[in-house]
Each structure stands twice: as structure tokens, then as C-alpha cells.
Amino acid sequence: MPFTLFRTPITAEAYAARTATPARTFGLRALLLLTLLLVASALSGCATQEPLKPYNPMGVSGKVNPEAEKYFAMAHVLWKGGETCTEPEKAVAYLNKAIEIQPDYWQAFARRGLAYSEMGLWDEAFDDLTRAVRQHPSAENYAWRGLVAFRMGNQLGARKDLTRSLELDSSQHRAWNYRAAVELAEDEIAAACADFAKGCSNGDCTGMESARRQGVCK
């Protein structure tokens, strides 16, 4: 199938077909570290039993269509403040509605990109995060797109996005740790350990601790 930058929402049948294919692979050591980073950063996964709070969790109330904002909030609370969601399909359904109502809603594109990444739909995730980056080129959006690029096996693109994220905000511990994983995949051990150390000094020592346990960094 030819690559197109922005796709329409994926159908259930297409999702089943896509997720049945083997995942892209990269360095085992980097994969182990990245998995540990992602697991540790997730606070409590995704849940639907909590009632929707009467405010927009992104703090953008009044800046977008109220109906779109409502659907965005319904999706956002599924993460419960963490970075992993166990019901990404439901989040995508809400975000599809938000984007249909407000086509320039960059927060919804970013969040849908994260949901797609949870589903292993890397191309769709990259497309949505590219929309988010174009509309709002923030350090966080570059970091998320860099992570997705890495998971797609595009280490050059991942490094570029993560470096740009750090240029915009050098306190992004997530970007330091993810770039370290890219460097580790390319056997740049000294650079990876230096970036893990930067991530640790900015508040997240997960990467450095994992690397030390595996004998990668001192």
C-alpha cells in the first residue's frame, strides 16, 4: 500500500489485519531498556470506571469547540495521568469524533497518535504526531514522534526528532532517555550513558538504573 501522510481512521478489519503481522524489530538490548522505560513511566494504565471530571485535562477550555473538547476529555482520562492505555481503541473512537468536529485540534491528533502506537499501528501514529508537530511544534510532540519513529525502526528520524525536542526543552527527561535508547541500538554506549545520566538529572533515573542493572552503564 503506498504511503500517504494523513490517513482516514482505520477500520476494525484493517486493524485486525495489521496487528496480525510481526512487529518491526531492532536491537534487543535497546528493546529491553525501552520496554522498562515505558512500563515504569505508566502510572496506572487506562480505566473507564471513573466519571469524567468537569474540566478539560489539557487546560485548553474555551479555545476549541466545546463538543470536540468533551470527546477529547473522554479519551484523555483513559490514560489516568500515565503514558500507557489498555483501551486505545475506545480512545481512538472518541478522538475521531473530536477531530471530525475540530479538524485543527492538535492535542487530539497527538493523543490519537499515542493511542495508535499502543495498538502497534506505527504509520498511523506517526501521521497523527506529524500533524501535531506541524500545528504545535513543542518539545513533547517531537519526543513522542521520535519514540514512534524509533519503534518503526527509523533511528535516523528518531534521533532527529529527539534532538529537536531537547533543543526546545533540555529538561525533557523523556527525550533524553529515548534518545539514549536510540544510541544504545546503534552501539553508541558512551553517548547513551551520557543521555541516560541527563535524563536522571532531569528527574527520571529509570533508564540509567536499567542500563546499570544490565551492565551497560557504570
From TrEMBL:
<keyword id="KW-0802">TPR repeat</keyword>
<protein>
    <submittedName>
        <fullName>TPR repeat-containing protein</fullName>
    </submittedName>
</protein>
<dbReference type="InterPro" id="IPR011990">
    <property type="entry name" value="TPR-like_helical_dom_sf"/>
</dbReference>
<dbReference type="Pfam" id="PF13181">
    <property type="entry name" value="TPR_8"/>
</dbReference>
<feature type="repeat" description="TPR">
    <location>
        <begin position="106"/>
        <end position="139"/>
    </location>
</feature>
<dbReference type="InterPro" id="IPR019734">
    <property type="entry name" value="TPR_rpt"/>
</dbReference>
